[in-house]
Every structure is written in structure tokens, then in C-alpha cells.
Amino acid sequence: MRIALFTETFLPKVDGIVTRLKYTIEQLKKQGDEVLVFAPEGGIREYKGARIHGIRGIPLPLYPELKIAIPNPSIGFALRRFQPDLIHVVNPAVLGVGGIYYAKKYNIPLVASYHTHLPQYLQHYNLGAFEGLLWELLKLAHNQAQLNLCTSTAMVEELVSHGIERVQLWQKGVDTDTFHPDCFSWQMRHRLSQGHPEAPLLLYVGRVSAEKEIDKIKPVLESIPQARLAIVGNGPAREQLEAFFAGTNTHFVGYLHGKELASAYASADAFIFPSSTETLGLVLLEAMAAGCPVVAARRGGIPDIVTDGVNGYLFEPDKPETAIIATQKLLQGGEEREKLRQNARKEAEKWSWAAATAQLRGFYQQVISSSSQRQAA
User: Fold this and answer.
1) Number of alpha carbons in the 13 Å side-chain half-sphere of residue 98
2) With respect to CATH, is domain 2-173+352-376 assigned 3.90.78.10?
3) What's CA 204's distance to the chain center, in Å?
4) Where in the chain is the domain with CATH 3.40.50.2000?
5) How far is CA 34 from each of CA 1, 27, 48, 257, rounded to the nearest angstrom?
6) CATH code reported for the domain at 181-349
């Protein structure tokens, strides 16, 4: 197959969407598929054999790491040269709308996928009044596609409830070779804890932004004597959060990648994830693959990954004290904590990127086949 992917974010940006796309492209190429990626210009022209067609972007005022890439005529020229069997728009917002336009113009089968729960994000930027309008715009875009994919059952239900049609679940995936309990390192633990490797070590990995609700970790940290917190990642709220956590045992690490990131997961005592806006929470799967027990909000796509008391603990996002209780219970668990570690790893082992991409290829083939049948009719 020849697949044209349109994404609002790609390398060198680092987030869950980019991670999924990286592994998906790699697996598609292994199956002999050709992939052309349309993304905001980022300096790279190729990834794992897939050509990157960069579109000049404007930094988003509230989040300069993200760029708004305005569709331009070069997209049409590139598509005519590439002759895709299918267009897949990932989180269509601006550039993705260009993908939808050209799919219609050239009569190319169209798949869309939903990865970022933007309507919920509005609440964290004092823009909640626009939530209804945003859902209408999302419905307008997604209902142009022959198939819409979500990464958790909760998001499937959410999209259907807002009138988005032809929705299916795209299963999760994680790299269980890279993220493994054997990546434990005293050196990394020393680094994350700022020289206190013997102290209880809490870890957060992800975007450092308002919608991730990282501020909710502070009461948890303060409730555990001698505990240290490492925040791995970056984003627009870093400066504000550094001021908020001033005076606590918190270390803002910045980005970690590859083996260093795997070592961070495997070397921590607990992975704390307070976000209540997740469509999936890929970092949770990475932590679990590394054998790091998780404490996460019971909201969105997270309960698809974490089974409370079996492979981690869930807390109620509207009841901050439940996060404190869950984290204290985890750290004091002894044998139960070790069982959680083992079960977390077993859960992660069920979800390979090869299987997730095989499912995606099946969806692609169904859409291409049904489109061919309609054209023939």
C-alpha cells in the first residue's frame, strides 16, 4: 500500500502521538508499504525510509514547541507524484484539514484518527466556553472520513456521543524491548533523585503543560517524608511549575530519550500520572513495560491500561486525597508492590507495535476495498 500521513506534530517534537507514528511508520515499512508524511517543517526529510514533506509552520503562541502548518499547493503536487492508495489524517486541525481537502479533490480513501482530547484541554486554558463549537468542528472534519480511529474505548464512546460516525478502536502498542525492568540503574536513580538514591523516588514523564495537571502531584510528594520527584519532559508550563514546586524535593530533568528514558522508568519506585484528559496515556504503558508501578487518574483512556489493584492503582481525579492514599499504599506495599510490578510488565507484553500496526493495515485495506467497490458501482 501507498499511505500518505498528515500529522500536526512530528519529529523533532516528542510526545505520545509522535511515538505512535514513529513505530507505525517503522512497522508499515517492514511490511513493504510506502509512506509519505506531511508534517510541520522540522528539519528532517526522512524517517525509517519514509519521506517527510515539511510544511512551513508558525509557532503556537501558548505552546511554541507546536507549529501551525498552513496547507499550501505543494501538498497537491507531492500527492500527485506519490499516488497514494489512502490518506490518513492524524488529529486533523489545520494541516490535517488540507489532507481532508485533497482526499476529496483526488477521490482518495480517507482515514482519520483522534489522539488529543482537545475539548477537555480548553478547560485548562480558560476557554471552556468554546467546547461546544470545537466539538462541532471536530465532527465536521472527522465525518468526512470513511473510518475514524480512537486509541481507547472511552474515547470511542465520547466521539460517538458527539455525533462522530464510523468509529473503531485502534489498539495500543508499546516497545517492550526498549522499556524493560532490566534497565534499572543506580546511576540513573542517583541522577533523578539529585544524589538521594535511597529516598522514595516518584516519576512523571510527559508534556509539561497545564492540561497534564502536574500540580496535583505536589500534595502527594509532601505527604511522603524524604520522597523525591523527577519530572521528565518539557513544555510551556515548566517555568510556572518550577516556581510552584520551589522548596520541595523536585527535579525538572527535561527530555530523556531511548535507553535513558527506559532507565528512568525502571529506576523509579512509582510513576505518578494525574492527567484526566488522556485519550490513552502511552507513557503509562512504557512505565509498566519497565516494571514501574503506576498511580494514575481514573479518567479517559487510562482505565483501558491500568486495572486498579492488579497492575497499578487508580485514584479519583476530583478527590486529591485518593492520590495520596494510593501512592502511600504503593510505596509501603512490599510483596504486593512486587506483584504489581510483575503484572504491569505482563500487561505491557500483550501490546506490541507489530500487532497494533497489523490491525491498522487491516483497517486500511477495508477502507480501500470499500472505496473501490463504491467507485465500481
Assistant:
1) 24
2) no
3) 14
4) 2-173+352-376, 181-349
5) 6, 11, 11, 27
6) 3.40.50.2000
The enclosing H or E element of 111 equals strand 110-114
E strand or H helix that includes residue 372: helix 353-376
Residue 266 DSSP SS3: helix
| Of 116, 165, 110, 115, the residue nearest 139 (C-alpha) | 165
Please list the residues that pair with 59 across neighbouring strands. 67
Q: What global pTM score does this model have? A: 0.85
Q: Calculate the CA 207 to chain-centre distance.
A: 10
Give start and end residues of each alpha helix (H) in 123-185: 131-142, 153-161
Dump pLDDT digits (tens) for 166-223. 999 999 999 999 999 999 999 999 999 999 999 999 999 999 999 999 999 999 999 9
Q: Which of 297, 292, 321, 127 lies closest to 212 in space, CA to CA?
A: 297
- With CA atoms as reference, report the closest residue to 16 among 164, 211, 240: 211
